[in-house]
Amino acid sequence: xxxxxxxxxxxxxxxxxxxxxxxxxxxxxxxxxxxxxxxxxxxxxxxxxxxxxxxxxxxxxxxxxxxxxxxxxxxxxxxxxxxxxxxxxxxxxxxxxxxxxxxxxxxx
Length: 108
Fold this sequence. Notes:
Layout: H1 2-12, H2 16-23, H3 27-34, H4 42-52, H5 56-59, H6 69-88, H7 93-107
């Protein structure tokens, strides 16, 4: 799993130190992970995956697709389509925005 992390750092042009500062994950955690002494807990792995825009499965080496931006685009398109359908049904646009924002919170 750390090899994938290193590759993602290389692709994004960042150092583990930068990832540490940006995510709040200690450099000691990343160093222990590199040395094979420690595997980050789910919460930290999730932060790393979100930082690089990949799934946990990709970070774990299970999934081959690394970029989740296409999936996010599909979700956003679905939100827009739903909003248009609701508006056509006479639902107030402010209510639609509130529903979409609520859905986005659950997506994270």
